[in-house]
TrEMBL record:
<keyword id="KW-0645">Protease</keyword>
<keyword id="KW-0378">Hydrolase</keyword>
<keyword id="KW-0121">Carboxypeptidase</keyword>
<dbReference type="InterPro" id="IPR029062">
    <property type="entry name" value="Class_I_gatase-like"/>
</dbReference>
<dbReference type="InterPro" id="IPR011811">
    <property type="entry name" value="Peptidase_S51_cyanophycinase"/>
</dbReference>
<dbReference type="GO" id="GO:0004180">
    <property type="term" value="F:carboxypeptidase activity"/>
</dbReference>
<dbReference type="GO" id="GO:0008241">
    <property type="term" value="F:peptidyl-dipeptidase activity"/>
</dbReference>
<protein>
    <submittedName>
        <fullName>Cyanophycinase</fullName>
        <ecNumber>3.4.15.6</ecNumber>
    </submittedName>
</protein>
């Protein structure tokens, strides 16, 4: 469940309410963040409790060894939902990657526990994490940085930052390097809820942009010089708003 960085807790309320509704009656929610995170974890925890969570616990990762702590692992083992919070994806991914906590999150998610990522935590959910890059509408060679993510899905690359024109170049550059994936661009206060059937539903006040390179034609990715524009032909793009659904397996919007 990737969620675009919220502009306000009030704007995120519909997203949090949906997360709680699929997590059971008065669910136990675990927030996972890096020690240096700038996100308001206490305020988010209070908002979740006000919306119906039974209990909210925060796990703050300050070192990779925290991902091996038995108390942290037990907390996630007994959780009904997990929310990853970050302003910079590498800050959290370098603390989580390869730890017992990361493996536990993948297992619990495969068993049906919802795992959400908010702000830069959204990018972390994918196997190929979009860790940073240049703003602007044109994809450029070297204009995007990819790193290993948590790996809950290998079907998508997620960019949750900025307006469409600011992030489109980054997303296209990432797809030029990974043309088997779908690109998801999330507006603020907008989330993509991906169910066990790999059908995505949009929740929130903004839009979700999906870029599909499945039928890509010519691309000069192998020959482009550093910072040169990347040519990509025959892309498909969809813009989905609240309530719209999309089948990730068959790559098509649903009525």
């Amino acid at each position: 469940m990737p969620c675009g960085g919220g502009e306000s807790l009030e704007g995120d309320a519909a997203i949090y309410r949906q997360l709680l509704s699929i997590s059971g009656h008065r669910p136990k929610v675990v927030l996972i963040c890096a020690r240096a995170t700038e996100l308001p974890c206490e305020e988010i925890a209070a908002a979740l409790l006000a919306l119906g969570a039974g209990k909210v616990e925060t796990l703050t990762l300050g070192a990779r060894t925290d991902g091996e702590k038995p108390a942290f692992l037990e907390t996630v083992e007994n959780a009904d939902a997990v929310l990853l919070l970050a302003r910079q994806p590498l800050r959290l991914s370098t603390l989580l990657g390869g730890t017992s906590l990361a493996r536990l999150l993948r297992r619990r998610n495969a068993e049906g526990m919802p795992v959400a990522g908010s702000a830069a935590g959204a990018a972390l959910l994918a196997e190929h994490m979009l860790a940073g890059g240049e703003s602007g509408p044109t994809p450029r060679m070297g204009g995007v940085m990819l790193a290993p993510g948590l790996g809950l899905s290998n079907r998508i690359v997620i960019d949750q930052g900025g307006l469409l024109g600011d992030r489109l170049g980054r997303l296209l550059a990432a797809l030029a390097l990974n043309p088997f994936a779908l690109g998801l661009g999330l507006d603020a206060d907008t989330a993509a809820f991906i169910g066990p059937d790999n059908v995505l539903e949009v929740i929130g006040s903004g839009a979700l942009t999906i870029v599909d390179p499945a039928d890509i034609g010519h691309s000069n990715i192998a020959d482009a010089a550093h910072n040169a524009p990347i040519s990509m032909l025959n892309l498909r793009m969809h813009v989905l708003v609240h309530g719209a659904r999309y089948d990730l397996d068959f790559r098509r919007p649903l009525g």
